[in-house]
Amino acid sequence: MSEQAVSQQAFSEQEGIRRAKLQELIDQGQSPYLLTKYPVDYRSEAIKADFERLDGQVVTIAGRMTSRRIMGKAAFAHLLDGEGVIQAYIKRDDIGLEAYQAFKTFDIGDLLGIRGKVFKTKTGEVSVHAEEVILLAKSLKPLPEKWHGLQDTDLRYRQRYLDMIVNPDVRETFLKRTRIINAIRNFLNSQGFLEVDTPILHTLEIGAAARPFVTHHNTLDIEMFLRVETELYLKRLVVGGFEKVYEIGRIFRNEGMSPKHNPEFTSVEFYQAYADYEDFMRLTEELISSVAIEVCGSTQVSYQGQLIELKTPWPRISMAQAVKDASGIDYFDWESDEQARQALKDKGVHAEAHFTRGDCLAELFDVYVEKSLVQPTFVTDYPVEISPLAKRKPDDPRLTERFEFFICGSEFGNAFSELNDPIDQRARFERQVAERRKLGGTKAQVDEDFLNALEYGLPPTAGEGIGVDRLIMLLTDSASIRDVLLFPTMKPLGG
User: In the 8-state DSSP scheme, what is residue 48?
Assistant: First the structure.
C-alpha cells in the first residue's frame, strides 16, 4: 500500500471516529448543532491588550481548539478566534467531572465556548481559567498536521477556509486586504469623492480590447455581458452633475490567467470634473503613499526581496522617451505604420499586420521598458491609437494626455484627461469597433447612449482605474494574485 493510500485510510478512520462521537452526543440529546448563539463578550487580542484591567474578571470567549494538553485533572487548550489565539486552562474541579470528561473527548478543530477568569500563567501567557466549557460545533474532519500546516498550494486556494484556519499569515493577508480597501475608500472620501454603484450586467459588448463573459437574460430574452470596466457609466454621472465619483467593484474579463491575472478582479475607478491627468498624477501618488502609511506604517515596503519607496513625488517619463532610452528607437522618426512595423522586425520584435505606430510603440515599451520600472514611475503621453477614450495633447495630436503607473515591473493604474468631444469620440469608437470585428470573435458595438450623454456636454474631466488586487499584492508582499483573493478562479477538480 502506498504512503498516500495509508495516509488516506488513516484520515478516513479519524473521520469515522469523529462521526461516531457526534452520533453518541446526538443519542444523548446533546447535539452540538442546536445552539443558535453564544454570548461572546471578548476576543483574544482584546483580552491580551487590556490585561491589566481584565485581570481576574470573568469573560466569555469562543473559538476553534487548535491544541490541547491534558495533565490528569487539568488541561491547557488554545482557541483560535477572529483576532488570534488565546490559551484556556481547564480544571476538573472547576467545571465538574462530567464536563471535564466530555472535554477530554473533544477533538482538535472543534469549536468551543469558554467562560472564565482572565489570568497569567507562571510563564507569563495571558489565559482564561475556565468555569464553563461548551461544545458549539463538531469538526468532523481533522485539521492538517500541526507542524507542516497546509502546504499544497492548489488545495490552499480551493479550500481557503482550511487555509485560514491553519496558516496565520494567510489570515493576516486578508485582514490587511480589508484595511487597504478601507484606506482607499477613506482617502477618496476625504477628497470629496462620492462612492456610487454602476451596473455589472451590460447590454453591449464594450470596453477596449477586453473579451467579456457572455450570459443570457431569460425574461428580456437578450444577450448580456459582465462588465469589463466601470468607466462609461461613471462618466455619465459626471455629465449628470456629480463632479467627483468613484466605484470600488468587481471587473470581469474572459482572458488568460497568470500570477498577475484573474478573470474577476477588484478595481477602483474615480473621476473628477475640471481636472486633468497632471492633477491625477499628484492625486495618485498621494493616494498610494497614504494607503501604505496607514496600513504598513511607512512609505517603504518590501516586495519579493526588493525595497520599494512610495514617498512622493514619483518620477515621470513619456512613453516615447522611455522607449528611445531603452531601445534607441525614436517614435517620432516613424512616418507610417509600415515603417514602424519594420522597425520592430529589425529589432526581432513581433509586429502584427494590423499594428499602427501607436501599437508598435506600446509593443516596444512592453519588451524594453516595463520590467525595468521597479520603483513607482509615471509613464505619460500614450499614442492616440491605443487610447480611444483619452484627450489628445494640444501640442501633438498624435499623443494623448494619458499615464499609467508602474511598480515592480507591473502596471498598477491607467488614467487620462477624458475625451469629451462627442464627434472625435464617435470616430474613435467606430474605428475601434471596426478593428475588433475585423479580428473576429467579437460582437463589439458603439455605445450610442454614452455618445448621447457626451452630446449634452462632459466638462473637462480626469479619470483613473487602479487594480486593487495588485496593490494588495504589493503591500502584503504576495507573489501571486491568488494569494490575495479569498476564492480565486480555479478549474473544477475532474473537469
Answer: H
Which domain, by its residues, includes 104?
Answer: 3-143
Neighbour-count burial of 40, counting CB atoms closer than 10 A to its CB (0-12 exposed, 13-18 middle, 19+ buried) = middle
Give bridge partners of residue 60 from the DSSP assignment.
115
- Residue 41 included in any domain: yes
Please tell me the total count of domains within the chain.
Answer: 2
Is 337 a domain residue?
A: no
DSSP 3-state assignment of 363? helix
- Judge residue 130's burial from the number of C-beta atoms within 10 Å of its C-beta, 0-12 exposed, 13-18 middle, 19 or more buried: buried
How many residues are present in the chain? 495
- Cβ–Cβ under 8 Å, residues 318 and 380: yes
Based on the domain organization, do 109 and 190 belong to the same domain? no
CATH code for the domain in which residue 42 is found: 2.40.50.140
Q: What are phi and psi of 6, to 5 degrees?
A: -60, -45
Query: 221: alpha, beta or left, given left = phi > 0 and alpha = psi -120 to 50?
Result: left
pTM, entire model: 0.91
Name the domain boundary from 143, 174, 200: 143
Are 128 and 189 members of one domain?
A: no
| Mean pLDDT (the chain, rounded) | 93
Instruction: Tell how far CA 143 is from the center of its chain.
Output: 27
Same domain, 76 and 112: yes
* Per-residue pLDDT tens over the stretch 168-182: 899 999 999 999 999
Asked if 463 and 269 touch (Cβ cutoff 8 Å), the reply is yes
Give the mean model confidence (pLDDT) for residues 244-258: 93
List beta partners, residue 10. Answer: none
284 with 464: CB under 8 angstroms? yes
